[in-house]
Amino acid sequence: MRIFLEQMLNGLTIGSFYALIALGYSMVYGVMKLINFAHGDLFTLGSYLGFTLLVWGNAYVTSHVGLAGGMIAAMLIAAIGIGTAGIIVERIAYRPIYPAGRLPAVVSALGVSIFLENIIMVLWGPRYQAYPVNVVPTLRFEIGGIHITLLQIVILIFSFILLAILYYIVQKTTFGAAIRASALDRDTAALMGININTIIFFVFALGPALGGTAGVMVGMYYRQISFTMGWNYGLKAFTATILGGIGNIPGAMVGGLLLGIFEMLGSAYISTAYKDVFVFLILILVLIFRPRGLLGEKVAEKV
């Protein structure tokens, strides 16, 4: 039972990364019906921005705001930087070709993904980069026989705060109602007076910003990052989006957390060598038995 609970905790930690990244896929698809294949590389870029701040500015930052302040500053810089990058990508790579249909936009997204991956490699080099070990003290606690680290506590707290804030915005505010209306039927929402360009701006800024924040958390958790990691995390987050229901924001949250739990339980009780296989197996099973996801894709009812 102790191993099971610890793996559940590890799964929630990993799943929180997937959930934050999956939200970017889900929001963009919900409004634009577009799979933003560049999203995984924006996540990677956020991880490298956080790394740059914590390594190059480590002494200055920690001397003024402490370790906790340095960690928050890294996530904030990554969120702002990647949110801005997401807006630039939408304006340059997607907006000019919206009238051409979905397929050209998909090709453009793949091109942006390749471009970002190579830019990261050129700027930071092809080797793995190591996050500083003193960002969060390596403290370990034992609660009821279950081991948990301070870093896991910090990651879970920050992740669930971000997820809760986004859920509140989307489900409980007027602007969130406009987002949901645009996801159901963009043309009708525009006729009702909703500024679609504002909604597009929001989803292309907030989705990558959450992904950039997750990138910093991944760097702190695993201590090393690679310019190619966007493909792996992006694919798993996309699987989480499908698992929860693509275009469904609460579904992306649930799907990400569940995927992390399934991956860790599979690693613990079957084999770590096949943990990525579990992800694709889940994707295949969901597509076969429940193609709209666990919570269902949001679609407009025609009456």
Automatic annotation (TrEMBL):
Protein name per Swiss-Prot or TrEMBL: Branched-chain amino acid ABC transporter permease
Organism this protein belongs to: Candidatus Infernicultor aquiphilus
Subcellular location(s) of the protein: Cell membrane
Matches recorded under InterPro entries: ABC_transp_permease, BCAA_transport_permease
Keywords, ordered alphabetically: Amino-acid transport, Cell inner membrane, Cell membrane, Membrane, Transmembrane, Transmembrane helix, Transport
GO CC terms of this entry: plasma membrane
Coiled-coil regions listed: none
Pfam families: BPD_transp_2
Molecular function terms, GO-annotated: L-isoleucine transmembrane transporter activity; L-leucine transmembrane transporter activity; L-phenylalanine transmembrane transporter activity; L-valine transmembrane transporter activity
GO biological process, one term: L-isoleucine import across plasma membrane
Membrane topology: Multi-pass membrane protein
Recorded superkingdom: Bacteria
Residue ranges crossing the lipid bilayer per the database entry: 12-30, 42-61, 67-89, 101-124, 144-170, 199-222, 242-265, 277-295
Family membership noted in the UniProt record: Belongs to the binding-protein-dependent transport system permease family. LivHM subfamily.
